[in-house]
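Try it yourself: sequence plus LM24SWP5, in.
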Amino acid sequence: MLDVARKPGQPEQAPKVKDVLNFIDGHYLPARGGRTFDKRTPVDGALIAKVAEAAEADVDAAVKAARAALDGPWGKITPAERGDLLYAVANEINKRFDQFLEAEVADTGKPVSLASHLDIPRGAANFKVFADTVKNVSTEFFEMATPDGAGAINYAVRRPVGVVGVICPWNLPLLLMTWKVAPAMACGNTVVVKPSEETPQTATLLGDVMNAVGIPKGVYNVVHGFGPNSAGEFLTRHPGVNALTFTGETRTGAVIMKAAADGARPVSLEMGGKNPAIVFADCDFDAAIEGTMRSCFANAGQVCLGTERVYVERPIFEKFVAALKDKAEKLKLGVPEDKATTMGPLISLEHRNKVLSYYAKAVAEGATVVSGGGIPKMPDALKDGAWVQPTIWTGLADSAATVTEEIFGPCCHIAPFDTEDEVVKRANALDYGLAAAVWTTNLARAHRVSSRIEAGIVWVNSWFLRDLRTPFGGMKQSGIGREGGVHSLEFYTELKNVCIKL
Ligand SMILES: NC(=O)C1=CN([C@@H]2O[C@H](COP(=O)(O)OP(=O)(O)OC[C@H]3O[C@@H](n4cnc5c(N)ncnc54)[C@H](O)[C@@H]3O)[C@@H](O)[C@H]2O)C=CC1
Ligand SMILES: O=C(O)/C=C/C=C(\O)C(=O)O
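Structure, out:
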């Protein structure tokens, strides 16, 4: 039975319903036509915001503002000056830390302890890291011989691609949005952001930060709404957008790629995963359990890098399953503000339906439910929240839907394996290739296995350990392109070669 951590009687007051507006050309604006949609907290289902639902004309205005800003002061300042402004953005986010924290927690229901250590600090750090990257990266220079003996020189310069459309998910809203907005701005572009309809608040707050530190109007714009036939589609189809960057589901990425084909516009796509963890018998057992707990259950399993398939070498299989079950059952579900809470709700009742459909499918496919498998008993005040039990299965075939399809919930299937060759093949068997974790104390094996795994990121004896200078992205259907450090410059700039005949 799960221990439910919440303060008795909470929430005592009805939350204030906020108006969340679009942010266009430096101004907070309602939607043309006045449409709004409701945002409810997944903690207890209470209405927390009325969000302006951008009409096509609002998206058009945002793109036009972003285009005009390219020709304004933003287009004329030096990379170093842009870098200083981005540092100011980061410092201002940190100054308003509590405001961002409150907004992120309200939208997602995630524990304050998680958002205060991950989401908000990374939101600020993203601006600093890309300000530094742009300042410190040089380009190419080649001297060449010419038939007349005078020679020529070539040098490459980076120029912004223009207006970048940024389509964001709900799982790490500020972190993932700024992971794209920061490099885009550091490279001199302007942006129109479409946050997830589930998490409209922190992107909106960031508009105020941009104004406060003097980012010129029109550089950063936010339009709210949904995907098809709404702000997402209006933005991705808009011919004034020069490049599109997206994090979210693979099927959505494919739709966005089709939209980008009109005008042959570049895309950067970070998409779904069904990530394996491979645990060898020679691992540091406690570290492997601790790391696998985080990779399966952090953020209620709503992390694209999270583990949903665990392969454990047979000699330690039973011990591993028992230890993971023990830890999973100690997770404390509860209100975000409670320091004891270690797992929040899923993002929405709709997403919970999806996750629960896999819980049912696992049973139908013949799984042994080691732990969880349903809806936890929560106090009355939280009964309308999107709560789900952390869940562990064993006994499924590698072909089961539960083992092959992204669930994006707090769950994993654990299977035994016998040989390195066998487990590498099983880990690589899917069309996804985002991340993997390998647990072993054998250094040669760590190198061997990580070199054979088909994933954009392999963590050995760790998980979600991020150096923001490194390439980040997925192989196969998990993504197109890499972002992070200098790799982001490849996407957010056009590289132009200048050849001068001497
Ligand atoms: N980081 C990741 O890998 C994430 C994966 N997911 C997975 O995706 C599933 C669905 O979650 P959603 O939030 O609906 O993800 P999604 O991929 O549909 O949405 C992500 C963003 O794309 C926008 N969008 C959706 N359709 C669009 C379209 N046709 N054109 C332009 N923009 C569009 C959405 O409004 C949102 O801002 C989840 O159950 C989960 O499995 C969800 C969020 C993040
Ligand atoms: O650290 C990052 O930049 C990204 C982490 C997580 C995701 O991309 C995700 O969950 O979508």
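One thing you can check immediately is this: The chain has two domains: 15-271+478-501, 275-467.
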